Every structure is written in structure tokens, then in C-alpha cells.
Amino acid sequence: MIAIRHDRRGTALIFVLYLLLTLGLVTAEVARNARAEAAKVAGVRARSVGRYAAESGIAVAMVRVHQLLDSAATPISQATALRGVAADLEQLGDSMLGEARFRVTVVNLNARIDLNRASKEMLERFLSQFAGPQDVNAAVAALQKEPVRRVGELARVPGMSQALAYAVAPYVTTWSDGMVDINAAPETVLVALQGMEPAAAQSLVERREAGEVLTSSDPNRPPRDPSTEPETMEEARGTVPTPQAIVVPTRLLLISRGWQNGHPLTHEIQAAYAIVGHRLVLQAWSERDL
Fold first, then answer.
1. Which of 69, 197, 210, 274 has its CA 20 to 30 A from that of 79?
2. What is the average per-residue pLDDT within 237-249?
3. What per-residue confidence (pLDDT) applies to 230?
4. What percent of the chain has pLDDT over 70?
5. ∠ at Cα 75 (185, 205), nearest 5°?
6. How far apart are CA 165 and CA 230, in angstroms?
7. Pure H helices in the chain
8. pLDDT tens track for 53-97
9. Are 272 and 284 in contact (CB under 8 A)?
10. For position 221, what pLDDT does the model report?
11. Domains of the chain, first to last
12. Within 13 Å and on the Cβ side, how many CA atoms surround 104?
């Protein structure tokens, strides 16, 4: 009888231990699921806060650009005013918005080569600065045949290696109108313009760095008298010999990043706008989480 009682006690003890172990496992699983759900909710909230902050950054940048456009009486005055907008927005730094922050900047898209709207000759002159004839011909043929939606797709274009795609990325876009702003474009972009020799491109850059607002792509042309500034965008474009160049921007890209304080997720918005008169008109909008 004593042996039977000991066996029963041992069996009961094992059963109790089993129940405790099972209960512990169930409790751990419930806690794990609770933490996962909490993290998921926190992520959704951080994404919403980041998106709201990024949208606020776009709104702030638009107000600033509209103020500059309204204060400019002529296209050349616009060019002068817009030169400083990126610096103005950079001075804002990380702007507070409740528990969120945002940082915004502006990019002159006309300072870049539009991969989908540039002419075959323009693409060839541009890419020849980075690659040999064989790769250039293959890349240009592919770009002329099928447009790319994003600069990030460049590495998939025939003739474009990963290294070449990285090298040209800072100078290209897919959201412009094919025109090049000689008051903003770097020398690498300027030399792609029809009839623009390297020496002339360098001269334009040097004149800009000296504070001149260019009104012609002819490096030998003297600065325009402010009293004779063109009154319309068409007249401003008419002062430029090459049909691919302009002296005032027509496309701007606003880039805003927003995030919740203490959370690693950042939401980025890229919004491309056309300058129509003194207003910005949305052309493209892209969002992503970083």
C-alpha cells in the first residue's frame, strides 16, 4: 500500500510539474504575442506620425517657395530668389511638430538631365563623361526605347553597371521637363548641352560663383542690364541660344522626411512641382519608409 501511495504521489508531482511547464510556456507565448502586437501598433503609429510630419514639411517648403515667387517681379528675379531657398530651408534644421520632427529641402530639377526627355545627342554627351562608347551607345539606345520610372532603376538599363549608375545618379532625374537651368546646373550637366564646349561650361560656372545671374548660355555675352530684364518666361527662354537651356527653373523637387521622436522609422515624401507663374503645380508624388 505504501508503495502504491508513493507511486501516486510521484505521478501527481510529475503531472503538476507538467502543468506548470505548460502554463509557463503559454504565458511566455501570450507575453511574446502581446509585445509583438504592441510593437506593431507602435510602428503603425510612428508611420502615421512620420507621414504627418513629412507632409507638414512639404507644406512649409511650398509656403516659402510661394513667398519667394510672389516677391519676384521678373523671371530673372525668380532665379535670384530661388537660389537661396535651399539654404533657407536648411537653416530650419530638424523642425519640431509636437512629438514629431521633420527636415525638408528643395532641389532644382532643371539642374539635372532628364533621362526620359533629353535628346539622344544630349544623353550621349552626358554619359560620355562617365563611360566608353560601347556602354554609352547601349545605355542611350535602351533609354530611348523604354523610359525609366525612377533613377533607382538605372542599374537595370543595358550598358549601365552598378558603379556607373551610382556615378550619374546625382546629375539625373525622371521628373523634369528636359530643360536645363544654366543658373543652377553643374558643369557636368552643362557640357551635355548642344554647342556647349567644356571651356564655356566652366566659364558659366565661374560667372555664377562670382554672383552673376546668367541670362544667356553664351559665355562671351556680357551681363544683362537689370533695367532690360525680360518680363516673361518666354522672353527669358528666348535669350538662350541653345533650345535645351533656360535661365530660370521650371521644375522643383521638394523632399521632406518626418519621424516620431525616439522611433527609428522615417517617412520620406518626394514631390515634384512645375512652376506656373507664381504658383507650384504638383506633377509627381512619391512616398517611402526609411
1. 197
2. 66
3. 47
4. 79
5. 25
6. 38
7. 2-71, 75-83, 85-92, 120-127, 133-145, 162-168, 187-190, 198-209, 233-238
8. 999 999 999 998 998 888 887 777 877 887 777 777 777 777 777
9. yes
10. 54
11. 38-110+250-289 (3.30.1300), 115-166+183-242 (no CATH)
12. 31
Q: How far apart are CA 123 and CA 191, in angstroms?
A: 11
Rounded Cα distance, 69 and 79, in Å? 9
In sequence order, what DSSP letters do the residues of 252-268 get, joined into one string?
EEEEEEEEETT---EEE
pLDDT at 110: 94
CA 79 to chain centre: 21
Amino acid symbol at 154: L
Read off the DSSP letter of residue 225.
P
Rg of the chain on CA atoms, in Å:
29
Q: What is the separation of C-alpha 106 from the centre of its chain, rounded to a whole number of angstroms? A: 8
d(CA 148, CA 190): 22
pLDDT at 76: 75
To which residue does cell 536645363 refer? 180
Question: In this model, does residue 236 exceed pLDDT 50?
Answer: no
CB 170 within 8 A of CB 195: no
Cβ within 8 Å of residue 120, ≥6 positions away: 140, 144
